[in-house]
Amino acid sequence: MSAANTPYAVNHISVDSVIFGYDGRKLMVLLLPEQVRMGREVFRFRKLPGDLILREEDLEEAVHRIVRDLTGIDVLKMIQIKTYGSKGRTSETDMRWLLQNNGVTIDGIVTTSYLSVVKINRQLESLRKKFGFEWTPVQGIEQLAFDHNRLIEDGLALLKNVSDATPEILFDLLPRKFTIPQYRLLCEQVHRRHYDPGNFQKKVLGKMPYVLPLEEFETGTGHRAARYHRFDKTAYKRLRK
Amino acid sequence: MSAANTPYAVNHISVDSVIFGYDGRKLMVLLLPEQVRMGREVFRFRKLPGDLILREEDLEEAVHRIVRDLTGIDVLKMIQIKTYGSKGRTSETDMRWLLQNNGVTIDGIVTTSYLSVVKINRQLESLRKKFGFEWTPVQGIEQLAFDHNRLIEDGLALLKNVSDATPEILFDLLPRKFTIPQYRLLCEQVHRRHYDPGNFQKKVLGKMPYVLPLEEFETGTGHRAARYHRFDKTAYKRLRK
DNA sequence: ACAAAAGTGTTTTAGGTACACCCATGT
DNA sequence: ACATGGGTGTACCTAAAACACTTTTGT
Q: Kind and range of the H or E element at B84?
């Protein structure tokens, strides 16, 4: 049904972004609620922020623009996860197949996914209310639109790999002031394993001199209060040179 | 200059494959010689095997087909490296911009690169002669067409990461019979570091029970002959379960 | 005999794990 | 007082590194 005169596939390109957040207890992923009216029925579902890229737009530019438009968030760094061809994919491609260009039917949509992380703070909470996005715990996520569950899995796997090579990314996820147990819980969720609390404490304090103790402690815990720490980016970069 | 009636980019998709080989001494990458006539002048250059994908074709299908067509090689496994947008890329996009579909100018070409490895054996050598591809040492590679130097860099980085998680890939690169020093040299080139020969030997023999010694030795070396070994896939898989 | 690389053995070091135990806080 | 998790100290185990030394081969 394609009207083009070459055998080569003609595609639109879309980008989807897997944005992780951490509320101090659980690793979360950012989702957008959507609804589609089909006659009398209304289907509700949630999806990752994403859209088609525009002419004259590079992939990275596009994902930054789209995330800003859909969530208000100006994400600093995007890491490419993977590209998914149009064949054998779910209804996302079908749904947008209608898009035509001067009678040339698009053969499909190729999707490239990106990983990013954000600190959940007051500013971000106000954006959440304004734009209506939602944080969902990565563990026990529901069935999502399209193949978005897979994108999240692949994104989480990449987050794990990246954080091995570049611990910095996990501190971008933590609040400015955090406790070692909070950091440990985050690591446990990213690496899907358990860490001994005592050993973890010692490793961080002994091997990560860019994690600095503050004179401030948690309150209202029902047990000994944990000390707050902060991530010193300058010391971190100096160490990595 | 685009005649389409939506703001969305319309692209062709191309795939390029970075295929590594190992001759027992040096890590090599497979390149195809090309020449383009521009009036009286003939430009010669080398490039990675790659082409545009066809309608109704998935990315992986396409890269397998293209590699088979261009080199005769039926590669078993392809690992996606990265996708490069069309904007700000070099002349590859320009060169093929001419491709049009019913008056709709394509906005650009998005390229996805794939990593693969092959054993250089007699069968492969005969394919090399038949299809005219060339093996080039990864170290000290010349300036290639388009952004192919970058693709190779990114491919090598991925090979390193993959081989950390899955040592098997390096044995796919080694000949069926190999010596421990050959394996060590390969690891040194992939990981860009030096290994102590004695320690390396012990690590392989002690921690990799799927590397089996043979009753066969190198000859004509000018020094003590190294023992040949082989990779036992069955034992390897059993261990990883 | 000698050079040169294969291969073995020994020692040291660093990092991870297990776990006992003390500390601080809310109920 | 007690439960709960924060945090410290100690012992142990394993893997990696350093390096001395022996073995084998071609010239």
A: strand B79-84
| CA-derived radius of gyration, chain A | 21
What's the pLDDT at B95? 53
pLDDT, tens only, A187-233: 999 999 999 999 999 999 999 999 999 999 999 999 999 999 999 99
State the CATH architecture for B1-164. Answer: Alpha-Beta Complex (3.90)
Residue to test with chain A: of B5, B13, B16, B86, most A Cβ within 10 A: B13
pLDDT at B12: 85
pTM to 2 decimal places? 0.93
Given a cut of 70, is residue A97 above it in pLDDT?
Answer: no
Query: B212 to each of A7, B166, B197, B215, B231, how far by Cα in Å?
Result: 49, 18, 18, 10, 6
> Could you tell me the two tokens for A125?
């909470």
- Domains of chain B: which residue ranges? 1-164, 177-241
pLDDT exceeds 90 at position A241? no
Residue stretches of chain B with pLDDT short of 50: 1-3, 93-94, 97
Where does A1-174 sit in CATH, by number?
Answer: 3.90.79.10
Tokens (6 digits) for A82: 């993977």
Q: What distance in Å separates residue B55's CA from the closest CA in chain A? A: 4
Name, in order, each residue with C-beta under 8 angstroms of A193's C-beta and a sequence gap of 6 or more: none
**Does A85 sit within 8 Å of B60, measured CB to CB?**
yes
Nearest to A11 among B6, B13, B82 (CB): B13
- The first and second tokens of residue B119, run together, are 């054993």
Taking each helix axis as running N to C, give the angle between helix A148-165 and helix A180-191, from 0 to 180 degrees, rounded to the nearest 10: 120
Please state, rounded to an integer, the average pLDDT across all residues of chain A. 91
Domains B1-164 and B177-241 share a fold: no
Other C-beta atoms lying within 10 Å of the C-beta of residue A219: 6
CATH number of A177-241: 1.10.10
